[in-house]
Amino acid sequence: MKMKELLLFLSCVLCVSADGQHGDIKIIGCSDSYGELMFGLDGEELAYADFNKQEMIYPQPPFIDPMTYQEGTYESSVANLQVCRANMQNSRKGMKDFPLERDAPSGVMIYTRDEVEFGEKNYLICYVTGFYPAPVNVSWTKNKEKVTQGSSINVPYINKDGTFTQISRLDFTPQQGDVYSCKVEHLALTEPATKFYEVEASARSDPGVGPSVFCGVGLTLGLVGVAAGTFFLVKGNECS
Length: 240
Ligand SMILES: *[C@@H]1O[C@H](CO)[C@@H](O)[C@H](O)[C@H]1NC(C)=O
Description:
It is a single-pass type I membrane protein. Belongs to the MHC class II family. This protein is an alpha+beta fold. The chain is built from 4 helices and 13 strands.
């Protein structure tokens, strides 16, 4: 645990010193069957328009004191979506029904948010990336039964290469022997891509001594090296 905190801290220092800028993003996208309007900051979702619930959704947790957008943002999102669809129709006419590019997901990963402890609430994450167009459908099973509650998915996030990423999350409490799966459907997949997660195989009842042992051995070797170096340095100076 201590190691983890240390690494987290180090990576924070590195990223702060490497780059003091923030990245703001607004995504407007549409297809015949889907539309998206999302505001993000530094890779996080700040807000998106939910066209079914007909309102803006602010997915950030309350403890970070999330910002909200002014009234009318949802209505202007609807207008933006209409503009997007109109532009799409014009492009279709102008470009004589150009074929739709299709990329199946290049990666599907399933993992837990926290280290697994039996009986401790946790989250399963299904991370899907590299697909075009958006979105994917993600569904979960527990011991082959469909899970209907406790899952959520974020809106598609655009990657640098123009493909998309979506992340689905499932509340779960690890019990020995349970098998979960996340099934991903996409336009470019002839059959769904499914990833399995088996609690038994990956749970550790003991947080693991591995990291501490490696750290101890590494540190010892390092100190021995420094001592040897100092020894030869001193010896070398004595000779000359
Ligand atoms: C995703 O689910 C919706 C609603 O069930 C369905 O209309 C759509 O065809 C699905 N998309 C894919 C790629 O399977």
